[in-house]
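Limitations
The structure tokens in this dataset are predictions for the assembled complex, not deposited experimental models. Users should treat interface geometry with appropriate caution, especially where small molecules or nucleic acid strands are included. An illustrative entry is reproduced here so readers can see what is and is not provided.
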Amino acid sequence: MKVTKLKDIAQLLGISVTTVSKALKDYPDISEETKQNVRVLAEKLNYKPSSLAVNFRNKETKILGLIIPEIVHYFFSNVIDGIINEAEKMGYLVITLQSNESFELEQKQIELLLDQRVDGIIISLSNQTKTFDHLKKVIRQETPMVIIDRITDEINCSKVIIDDEKAAYQAVEHLIKIGCKRIVHINGPLIPKNSMDRLIGYKKALADYNIPYDDSLVYSCEQFHYQDGIDAANQALKDHNDIDGIFAITDLLATGAMTALKNHGKRIPEDVSVIGFSNWRLSELITPSLSTVEQPNFEMGKQAVSLLLNEIKARKEEKMIENFLVKLPTKLIERASTKPTVKANPS
Amino acid sequence: MKVTKLKDIAQLLGISVTTVSKALKDYPDISEETKQNVRVLAEKLNYKPSSLAVNFRNKETKILGLIIPEIVHYFFSNVIDGIINEAEKMGYLVITLQSNESFELEQKQIELLLDQRVDGIIISLSNQTKTFDHLKKVIRQETPMVIIDRITDEINCSKVIIDDEKAAYQAVEHLIKIGCKRIVHINGPLIPKNSMDRLIGYKKALADYNIPYDDSLVYSCEQFHYQDGIDAANQALKDHNDIDGIFAITDLLATGAMTALKNHGKRIPEDVSVIGFSNWRLSELITPSLSTVEQPNFEMGKQAVSLLLNEIKARKEEKMIENFLVKLPTKLIERASTKPTVKANPS
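Predicted assembly:
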């Protein structure tokens, strides 16, 4: 792959290299039109500035910026743990910000981190983020960035995700293997990508085991609260009298679903098996304990820092910047809320 | 109260003001003996440097440092939430570090934050912290500091705590009011102060209701894990056949205790009432749901930032620095694990 240089953009637009450089840095003496043209072309050609420009622009601060949707959250607090620990080991401190699932706050926080001249940014997108100008600005300003968990295809940079599709597949396959045929799927809003990928995994597992997909078995919650799980399962029990399995997109929704099942006199797992997603701390403490899919959350944080520091280093050494997509594997955890897997007798 | 000045220290020791100033700033040309004398006296007189020196020393970074024992922890993640939100509202960013309950790491992290020239530090002490030279250095270097939740009397600065004694009193009083007489107390290591204060609250409630204190009913766990709660309650059931209430120092220990009670065929709350401490998310999800004491964790973070920023401002304006001890009130939450409070009939 040919590396795009400032010169290439300048030639294609018929302007000087200096003008291109100034346009990308948002200098006031360049017209908005020119800036726009330069940006569009830079984006299209996947232009990555050389480290010389970066070194010229600012000195290292040894500080990384982190924007996370929620801190009081078992998954994300583990991710933060992984990030902070790895960063500190490598000599970096981390400024943590919480977007509270607000697109507006996320935009503002990107500005704060750029103003602070952090050496790099790690971000997990808010539920509300559907446009990406603020992230394009990070790329344009030549600040290394890694997006984790809640990602988008619209931005070219390294990303770390859980293999959501495969994880959902594992969970549903487990339900099928213990004999479930009418499996309810309780999920959340299909933006960002995670919910969608888990739905795809659900469908794929059904297809591979010749169980017809029935979209009346899929319930989408607007939030991920305990009560949403109760409501979804209540509705499912009202709509169908033959359900024998529930795959919920989070452990908290699964816990709510279990409460609804109990209130309807359904035995877990004898009548309905339930499996969640995330392996929260509560999952082994509730009765019956909840089968789930464990996500490598600490590892995700660690990998994100490692990718970010590699990019910071590559830029310093004027090496080409490569973008990676790291998909971390998950682990099925069987507990009392699903029937035990039938094991073949040794012969 | 008279404000101590550099001059006072110089006069008392019979050395020059410059020597005192240099000693406090750890200049290499001052002897260790002189430094030691100056430090001891400065400490004794509660010397607080004027803001002029501070302004001279460094410019504002608009960054605060935060050291917390554990991030993946319901209480602390809520505290962090409060701190980050309040700081951001006031125009400050927060570098978060996790001591992992390690004294060694905590010392190193204080150095990192001082090197980074943060405008102020908020810290909650690790379980292992029994000496305080690293914190004395922060005071000496004139960096504003607030200690939260896990505090010490050995350092003069503002502090924010939960009123642990009163909270424990509330919990035990609740058990007494519903008829419990043989109340087990499951606690943790008595350092830092929190466990000790809760034990005092336990004793005080018993005394006020004329129930003799029996130290064979107090079980101290080395850790705060689920299994520790199980072990402590198992031991209590082995030692005593008449217990009718358990007050555990955390919800997770209480949850473990409930599991042990169930395994022994004890009904909750008919045979034994159980109350926890913290109101974790899991507490309303387990069966029976757990009565507990709610701590104002988010509020604690908010108050800490507010105190810290007030001190930063006071120093800038060369005003006198006052130290505050803020005790935040808690709230009793009655759920199914304790018998309902008997209400007098309206007459």
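Some entries come with short summary sentences. For this one: Residues 51-58 of chain A have pLDDT under 50 and may be disordered.
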